């Protein structure tokens, strides 16, 4: 886009901004023919050329634009090129803007020295050689373009840093809120464990006393009501217990260390208690592989998986549970296989969610939290878990954990 030197300066019409790599070149000359000639030569550079017929117009343009280079005629009436250059240099914004003076061969050395003192970077002598004019101007155009690119990149980087700082502030705020929420959750857990479970145990205790001491005075319906009340209280107690376990699993500080599965499984099975499943046959294959894990989280996983394996069997069927490991590269897969009722494939992706239960809900009691605890605990140890099962064909639950370096057999 070019501005005419013969028309009075008018407010520029609002148009789309030129690309950022386009820079401005200012041509100042009182002779329209020279302006047109210089414009024709420099138009090949593909930059924005602005023309001024005298020093006043040039100064007016400087109020509106930045320039890569100013091509300034020395011999102009009223205000010559030296006077115009002096006024340009008075503006801090244009102290470093390159000025190329255009003059005749009769310019004295004193005049040229004066031009250099005013900040001229070069002289062009009339008649101007097109190739020389284009070469000299293109140097400053490219310098301005590179400067503009660097400035744009610096602005983009500064904007990115600002956005990153804002994001960090948001993250810090969310972390603070999460800490507060965790503190409230811990306080709630304490309340649940001490203030809610105690009344539930009292209810169960009173129901037992009523059945033992006054059961003979009640009709069958009354005794059934008490039995239902006892069952509901115990279910609520089990639910709060499992919720507390899930909360602890979610909050537990996790540091992985080598763990021997064999003694850990034996301890878990002994804690489950023979009275719970007196007829269950649990087989632990010898030479189980060691894993990198967290002892408390592993205990929670194994306890829930073995409990499920011994509980969800058809009536009259003796639970058969087989526990084994296999190596999978840098992972160990732990299998817990049973001969239970099995799980339909449509439920495989749901059973590890909170409160999801499948099968006969009246025959098989549970809270629907056990497998959610398994999933969360395995996740926190950097592992994965899943199931292979079909109705009537038992279930094969698996847990993948990082393999452990060799552990001395003296360690438990």
What's the topology here?
Elements: E1 24-28, H1 32-42, E2 48-52, H2 55-62, E3 69-73, H3 81-89, E4 99-103, H4 109-117, E5 120-125, H5 130-214, H6 220-251, E6 257-259, H7 261-272, E7 281-284, E8 291-293, H8 295-311, E9 320-328, E10 331-338, H9 370-380, E11 384-389, E12 395-402
Helix pairs in contact: 2-3, 5-6, 6-9, 7-8, 8-9
What does this protein look like?
- There is one protein chain.
- The chain is α/β, with parallel strands linked by helices.
- Helix content is 47%, strand content 16%.
- The chain contains 9 helices and 12 strands.
- The strands form 3 sheets. The chain has a 5-stranded parallel beta sheet with strand order 2-1-3-4-5, sandwiched between helices.
- α2 runs parallel beside α3, α6 runs parallel beside α9 and α8 packs antiparallel against α9.
- The longest helix is centred in the middle third of the chain and has 85 residues.
- The radius of gyration is 43 Å and the shape is elongated.
- The two termini are 83 Å apart.
Q: Unreliable stretches, pLDDT < 50, 5 or more residues? A: 1-19
Radius of gyration: 43 Å
Q: What is the terminal separation in angstroms?
A: 83 Å
Order of helices and strands: EHEHEHEHEHHEHEEHEEHEE
Structural class label: alpha/beta
Which strands sit side by side, in order, in the main sheet?
Answer: 2-1-3-4-5
Biggest β-sheet description = 5 strands, parallel
User: What average pLDDT do the residues reach?
Assistant: 80
Number of strands: 12
What is the share of helical residues?
40-55%
Shape: elongated
**Number of contiguous helices:** 9
Strand content: 15-25%
């Amino acid at each position: 886009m070019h501005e005419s030197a013969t028309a009075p300066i008018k407010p520029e019409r609002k148009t789309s901004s030129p690309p950022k790599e386009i820079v401005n070149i200012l041509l100042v000359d009182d002779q329209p023919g020279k302006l047109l000639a210089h414009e024709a030569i420099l138009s090949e550079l593909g930059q924005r050329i602005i023309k001024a017929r005298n020093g006043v117009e040039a100064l007016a343009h400087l109020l509106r634009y930045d320039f890569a280079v100013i091509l300034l005629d020395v011999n102009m009436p009223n205000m010559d090129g030296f006077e115009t250059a002096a006024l340009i240099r008075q503006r801090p914004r244009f102290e470093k803007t390159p000025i190329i003076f255009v003059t005749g061969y009769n310019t004295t050395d004193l005049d040229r020295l004066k031009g250099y003192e005013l900040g001229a970077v070069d002289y062009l002598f009339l008649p101007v050689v097109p190739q020389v004019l284009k070469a000299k101007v293109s140097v400053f155009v490219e310098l301005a373009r590179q400067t503009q690119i660097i400035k744009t990149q610096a602005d983009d980087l500064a904007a990115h840093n600002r956005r990153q700082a804002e994001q960090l502030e948001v993250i810090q705020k969310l972390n603070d809120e999460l800490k507060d929420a965790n503190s409230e959750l811990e306080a709630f857990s304490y309340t649940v464990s001490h203030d809610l479970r105690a009344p539930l145990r009292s209810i169960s205790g009173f129901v037992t006393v009523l059945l033992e001491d006054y059961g003979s005075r009640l009709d069958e319906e009354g005794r059934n009501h008490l039995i239902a009340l006892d069952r509901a209280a115990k279910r609520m107690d089990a639910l709060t217990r499992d919720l507390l376990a899930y909360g602890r699993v979610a909050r537990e500080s996790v540091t992985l260390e080598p763990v021997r599965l064999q003694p850990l499984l034996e301890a878990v099975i002994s804690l489950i208690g023979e009275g719970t499943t007196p007829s269950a046959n649990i087989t632990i294959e010898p030479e189980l592989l060691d894993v990198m894990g967290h002892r408390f989280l592993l205990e929670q996983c194994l306890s829930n998986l073995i409990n499920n394996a011994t509980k969800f069997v058809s009536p009259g069927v003796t639970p058969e549970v087989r526990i084994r490991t296999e190596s999978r590269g840098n992972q160990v897969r732990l299998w817990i296989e049973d001969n239970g009722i099995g799980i339909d494939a449509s439920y495989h992706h749901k059973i590890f969610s909170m409160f999801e239960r499948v099968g006969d809900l009246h025959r098989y009691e549970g809270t629907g939290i056990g497998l959610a605890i398994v999933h969360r605990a395995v996740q926190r140890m950097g592992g994965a878990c899943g199931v292979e099962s079909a109705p009537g064909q038992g279930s094969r639950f698996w847990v993948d954990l990082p393999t452990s370096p060799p552990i001395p057999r003296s360690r438990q």
